[in-house]
Amino acid sequence: MTPTESVAEFAARARVWLTDNMPAIDPESPPAAPRDDERSWQRARELQKRLYEGGFAGICFPREYGGLGLDYEYQKAFDEESVNYEMPLILNTPTFTICCATLLDTGTEEQKKQHIAAALRGDEILVQLLSEPSGGSDLAGVITRAERQGDRWVINGAKTWSTSAFAAHYGLCLARTTWDVPKHDGLTMFLVPIAHPGITLRRITQLTGSTEFCEEFLDGVDVGDDAVVGEVNGGWAVASRQLYHERRAVGQGSEFSSGAGHEGGHTTPVDYADLAEKTGQADNERVHEMAGRVLVHRAVADQLIDHVYRNVRDGVLPPAAGTLIRLFHSETVTLDMDTAMAIAGAAGVVGEIGEGLQAGLRYLSRQNVAIGGGTNEMARNVIGERVLGFPREYAADRGVPFNQVRHGQTR
Amino acid sequence: MTAVDSPEKVLFASTTQAFLQKEAPLRYVRELHAAGASFDPAWWRRAAELGWTGLLVPEELGGGSVSGSGVADLAMVAEQLGRTVAPGPLYPVSVVLAGLVDCTESQAHTATIESLMSGETVASWAVSEPGRGWAPLDSAVTATPTDSGYRIDGTKDRVEAGAQSAVLLVVARCGQGADEVMQFLVPTDARGVRIVAQQSIDLVKQYARVHFDGVVVERSAAVGTAAETAALINRQSQIAQVLQCAEVIGILQTVFDFTVQWALDRYTFGRPLASYQALKHRFADMKMWLEACRATTAAAVSDVAARSPGAGLSASIAKSYVGEMAGQIVQGCVQMHGGIGVTWEHDLHLYLRRVALYRSMFGTPEEHNLLVYEAEKAAR
Prior knowledge:
The structure holds 2 protein chains of 2 kinds. By secondary structure, chain A is α+β, with helices and mostly antiparallel strands. Chain A has 12 helices and 8 strands. Chain A has helices at about 5-20, 40-55, 70-80, 90-105, 110-120, 235-250, 270-280, 285-315, 320-345, 355-365, 370, 375-385; strands at about 125-130, 145-150, 150-165, 170-175, 185-195, 200-205, 215-225, 230. In chain A, the strands form 2 sheets. Chain A has a 4-stranded mixed beta sheet. In chain A, strands 2-3-7-6 form a 4-stranded antiparallel beta sheet, with no helix packed on it. In chain A, a hairpin with a 2-residue loop joins strand 2 and strand 3 (about 150-165). Chain A is globular. In chain A, about 45% of the residues are buried. The mean pLDDT of chain A is about 95. The two termini of chain B are about 35 Å apart. In chain B, helix 7 packs antiparallel against helix 8, helix 7 (about 225-265) packs antiparallel against helix 10 (about 350-360) and helix 9 (about 310-335) packs antiparallel against helix 11 (about 365-380). By secondary structure, chain B is α+β, with helices and mostly antiparallel strands. The interface of A and B includes residues 290, 303 and 388 of A.
């Protein structure tokens, strides 16, 4: 890598390297890498190690933390080149796009040097320990507590909906350190080792049967001051960066994501020509039109990513505009699922996978994309309040010390 | 517009903006409508003097772009026009110019090009036909070869500014087995041309049905060869489509901005409309669709300007998406206004009319969806 290497030169070098070093795949049907399978994570780490050793890991991460320090254009060029190769896609979110991106914004020099570099080498997987059983969207209302005991912090509580935590080494854990101040002011973010004996981890079974998400019970988990990310009682600022990066990642608009393909299995886009053929509607113009509309919306989703990235960079749109991408992605996937279901017809609900039933099975988990990474409703609040500058909705807990806020009908 | 625009482009944009603010406010559009007029020819000549008509014309033919990309410059003008749904034949003239300057014998049409650039002459593209959707390469109008040229017969439909045009660029079927398509410049005062005004939902954009009954033209009336006509027609279609999309962006931004202001200013139950989550969420959706319209239009303008191989597909994607969502946004803004939004007095309907018009001109979203599906299938 020379400082003057152009995007085209970089892409040409990547093309040669990919051919020699990464397994070729059919991008239309990539090998499945189910996130609930331990083997997928081992495989992803091996592939990441190859990328690192080949000098193509962390294209947009700074050089001092193991990356290449290049612009998004280089990453996008690499994504185009790598689409025909097996890539460690499941490491992108949350490890790179959310956790490492947030550490880059808010971590100490030691944290960045240790964790970003380890992740880029394929040695470390990071997750988020944010949501709790007591509430999802009201993230600042978490009740997991961290208390000072000597020179240690001791964390007790429960977390849930942490993506693939079973495979992770560290989690960014949001805990309450002060209770007699308003909810946003008493939070602290900790980097918690998942292997700590005080953490009991349980898999959540989703309606599809996937067990990718976990819940964790934290019982006397002790960490040192070096585990604090950002300021003590300044955890909301860190969490806000996570949410910001998460919305961009969920909308497929993060420069820290590497590889543009799909993870395989249920994340492969619907192939409408194939679906129309399998369901005996290959020459049905009504079906073509419905499918064409989805293709248009998919194309616009990609164009919007580029548009928002450039406009945020140029200051035309505020950073919160990343949420537009997240919401648009959700709407596009919803349209995709609904259209596939409509075209599949009866074959979508009775029959064989590959003959149309896959459309019905995917339809069952349609709302995942509208809930995960912050709900569509939260996204619309962000757009309304932080992009359009509309007044906030009344909130009963605003400015109230957290230990005086109601948490149910009786307390 | 970005921070890195050249001084020339900034000057061109500000001159255009100042002209439109002063010479084409909404009040003026309403006055034209009240008088039954589409545009004032003298007004159009002054607009042409600003350079709008020369943007697609190469320098050797007397034109020139501002930024190096005439399509991008023209799209900027179109976006400005949208702010006041301004009148004038910019698109018909531009589309005809796009065909004239691109054909192999463009030098033969120098006089027409110059006259169009000066604003003295108005021309329009006669491509659509009665009772048919968007199929620009499929013409029922015929051009039969004669000793000295061609005889044109048939009927064209939805010709913008047809009654105000001195010349039409007519798509017609010709050749031995009538299996070729060509385009011809036909003066509207030629014997056998009959123009019948059509009603349009826009206040000032006027359209006409044009009958050609044994209209005789010279051989030199042909614009390009049969072999290149499909490429010319595709290019003209793309120009028409992206300029409409660009104008719609100007419309959507204007309507959305004044509706946001309305939501902040209007109080009900003691609080601004903008503070209600139910309404805020609708605004969030509209903002998202607006930015998506911008994104897809910018991509299409860029691809058409660069004459990229995917320009036709990009134009179809933009035309479909903008066509589908512009109505959603403007009707959503009408809803946010309540009763005042459906009055003649409020300006909303001026914008609503224009986006509704453009939804269906040069291909509906549904027609473009089919084209996009075919393109995707062909690329498999």
